[in-house]
Amino acid sequence: MSVRRALRWSGAAFTPALRVPVLLVPVLLVPVLLATALLAGCSGGTASDPGQMGAGTMSGSEARAAAGNPALDPGSSLGGHPAPDITLLNQFGQRMSLHQFRGKVVILAFVDSECTTVCPLTTVSMVEARQLLGAAGGKVQLLGVDANPDATSVADVMAFSRAHAMVNQWDFLTGTPAQLTAVWRAYHIAVQIQAGQIDHTPALLVIDPQGRERTIYLTQMNYASIGQAAQILASEAASLLPGHPKVASQRSLAHISGVGPSSSVTLPAVAGGAGGPVRLTPGRPHLVMFFATWLAETSDLRSHLLALNGYARAARNGALPGLVAVDEAATEPSLAAAGGYLKTLGQPLAYPVAADTTGRLADGYGVQDQPWFALVSASGTIVWKHGGWLPVAALTAAARRARGHVS
User: Fold this and answer.
1) CB within 8 A of 407, min separation 6: which ones?
2) What is the mean pLDDT of residues 238-257?
3) HEC string of 313-361?
4) What's residue 256's pLDDT?
5) Residues in Cβ contact with 53 at an 8 Å cutoff, skipping those fewer than 6 apart
6) Residue 251: CB atoms within 10 Å
7) What is the mean pLDDT of residues 356-381?
C-alpha cells in the first residue's frame, strides 16, 4: 500500500518486487466471499455478491450494471449491527469519537497514511460522494482511520490530509499502535507489514445516523471508476438520510474500458513540461511515467522530476525511447494541481507532461502504484514496467536492455 518498493535484479531487467497485499472482509459476510477475498489484493479487490448489496437508491438496471462491472464493488450488506465505537485523535490532535456523529451518515475508510496505491482513490470517492448530495452532504461525516502501523503520529495523518487536500474535508484518526490494533480488530481489518510493504483491507463502511453498520465497500485499483464508486456511495448515503435527497450525478455504472498502449490517444498538456498536447500512438517506442503531485508527501518529488531531465536528454538522439510524464489527474485535488506544482520547480522539464483526466489511460496501462513506469514497444506492447522511483542510471540501463524488444 505504501511507496516502499523493493528492487530486484532479474538478470535481464530491473523488475519491481511487487507482492499481492492481503485483503480481508468482515467475518459477517459469507464464508465463500471471505475465502475468495483472502486470495485478492488491495490493488485489485473482489466485487461482492449483488444479493448482499446495500439497498441504496439505485434502480434495478443500475444495480445490475454495478454488479457486472469488474472494476467496481457494489457493496455488501453488514446487516445493521451496531458499529464499534472509536475514540482516537484526528489530524489536529483533537480527540474524536464515532458516537459524536450520531444523527449523521458516516463514511468510514481505513487508509494507509503513506499510501501511493489504492487509498487516494478511496479518499477521492468519499469527497465526491458527499459533493453529489449537495446541501444534504452536510449531514454526511467523512472519517478515516490510519492503517499504517509504521506511520501513526498526528503529523503523519496531517501530512496525508494536506497532500490530498483533505485537511478540512474529513477527520483522519490515529492513535497508539495498541489503540489502532483494537480498532482494526473490531472492524475485522487485516493490517500487516511484510517485506517492508504495508498491506491492509481497503475497506470503506457506511454507518447510518443511528450508528449501525449498513454496507461495506472494497476500493478497487481502478482509476476510471472513481466517479462511479462515488455515485454508489452517495446513493447509499441518500437512502439513509431524511427525505432521501437526490444524487446529482446519474452516470452509467457499466464498465469503463481503459485506453491501452495499442491505441492512439491525445492528452492535454500540463504547463511546465516540454511542448504542447501529447499524442501517444503505436509506431515508435516510448517510456511513460505516471505520477501525481501528492507524491511529494512520501518522496522528494521535485528532485525525481528534475533528475528525469537527464534521461530525456539522453533520449533525444533516438538511442532511447522518448519519455512522457502523465499526471494522474483523476486523483489530484484539482485539475490545476499539476501545473501549479511544476511552476514551483524553478526550471522547466525537458520532457512533455500530460494529464490523464479520466483515469482511462492509467487503467489501460495497468498502473498499480504512483509513480509507475511503462516502456512501450513500437507495436504498442508494454515490455517493461516498474512501480516506484528509480535512479536515472538504472532507468536508462533498463531501457537499453529492453531496446531489442521495443523497436
Assistant:
1) 285, 377, 378
2) 93
3) HHCCCCCCCEEEEEECHHHCCCCCHHHHHHHCCCCCCCCCEEECCCCHH
4) 96
5) 63, 66, 67, 74, 75, 76, 77, 215
6) 12
7) 96
Helix axes 392-401, 301-314, angle to 10 degrees: 40
Q: What pLDDT is stored for residue 404 in this prediction?
A: 63
269 DSSP 8-state letter: B
Residue 176, pLDDT > 60, answer: yes
Contacts of 19-23 with C-beta under 8 Å, sequence gap 24+, read 19/194, 19/195, 19/197, 20/44, 21/197, 21/199, 21/200, 22/190, 22/192, 22/199, 22/200, 22/201, 23/190, 23/201, 23/202, 23/218
- Say how many Å lie between the first and final Cα of the chain, rounded: 34
Mean pLDDT of the chain: 86
How much is the average pLDDT of 122-130?
A: 97
**Contact (CB, 8 A) for 148 and 159:** no
- What's the pLDDT score for residue 44? 35
Q: Which three cell numbers stand for residue 237?
A: 448515503
Question: Using CA of residue 354, residue 360, residue 361, residue 362, what is the dihedral sign?
Answer: positive
The CA angle 282-369-378, to the nearest 5 degrees, is 15
**CB-count exposure of residue 19 (10 Å: 0-12, 13-18, 19+):** middle
> pLDDT band at residue 60, thresholds of 50, 70 and 90?
confident
Check if the beta carbon of residue 174 is closer than 8 Å to that of residue 139. Answer: no
Q: What is the mean pLDDT of residues 36-62?
A: 46
Peptide linkage before 371 cis (omega within 30 of 0): yes
**Helix (H), strand (E) at residue 182:** helix 177-186
- Whether the pLDDT of residue 152 is over 80: the answer is yes
DSSP β-ladder status, 278-280 and 265-267: antiparallel
Residue 45 banded pLDDT, cuts 50, 70, 90: very low
User: Which residues fall within 8 angstroms of residue 94, CB to CB, at 6 or more apart?
Assistant: none
For residue 3, is pLDDT > 70?
Answer: no
Closest CA to 43 of 251, 183, 197: 197
- Burial of 164: CB neighbours in 10 Å, binned 0-12, 13-18, 19+: buried
Question: What residues contact residue 8 under an 8 Å CB cut-off, 6+ apart?
Answer: 14, 15, 17
Arithmetic mean of pLDDT, 381-388 = 95
Q: Strands of 322-327's sheet, edge to edge? A: 353-355, 322-327, 286-291, 372-376, 382-387
